């Protein structure tokens, strides 16, 4: 595996490749990320991964400084997955001057759910993904359903800018007790780790109620949030939305495919998860 930090070197290395499959990450790789690499391999060749902790997508009071950075271990894992190139730019490589041109996702998708609680987050994500794609020029790129809203926004961005990159969605990988894998799980104290699967349990409860025919989404969401709050969580949202655009379903939209999305803080750690219904 070649480890490349400069954009020019990356372009030289990938010249002539037209089936590149790309997996952008912020490192601290776990089995969820590795499943993205394996899915990428099924859709293209060579597989290119990136590791870049993107300052633009962190709010001023978020965890940019303490975000786990485990480069050596990550390299070993990617080597075992036969990744061809790891693009690991420094901030100076990717943002040699202040990044003044930015990609703003539309408000109806970018300012709801995660965007409401993390203002500017999707602008930061879209800007870096656009820039990484301009460097890698992939035929496909793989994003996890764990970050469901991010996946939708990136897919729409590629569509609206007519980028020649298809976005492939990868299923969420979970621990045996149901907790969705996330780099931020490592912030959890042991008692919090034991409690953490309750988020997936809450989502499953919402899913079961909806599948049983209950259409009072506001009530179901409130009950799920109250249950978590009673266990010591601070829920930001639990929301049943249409998969197609993440808007709330109207009462008559009984056939619309749905997804339930959640974000909640457990101690100092904010977890997100979702479940297609
Ligand atoms: O999902 C992530 O790890 C990040 O948001 C991404 C897509 C690598 C952009 O920094």
From TrEMBL:
Cited CDD domains: PanC
Catalysed reaction, written as an equation: (R)-pantoate + beta-alanine + ATP = (R)-pantothenate + AMP + diphosphate + H(+)
GO terms (BP aspect): pantothenate biosynthetic process
Molecular function via GO: ATP binding; pantoate-beta-alanine ligase activity
Compartments it resides in: Cytoplasm
Residues annotated as catalytic: 33 (proton donor)
The keyword ATP-binding appears for this protein: yes
Pathway: Cofactor biosynthesis; (R)-pantothenate biosynthesis; (R)-pantothenate from (R)-pantoate and beta-alanine: step 1/1
Family to which this protein belongs: Belongs to the pantothenate synthetase family.
Assembly: Homodimer.
Protein name as annotated: Pantothenate synthetase
Natural source organism: Paraburkholderia megapolitana
Gene name linked to the record: panC
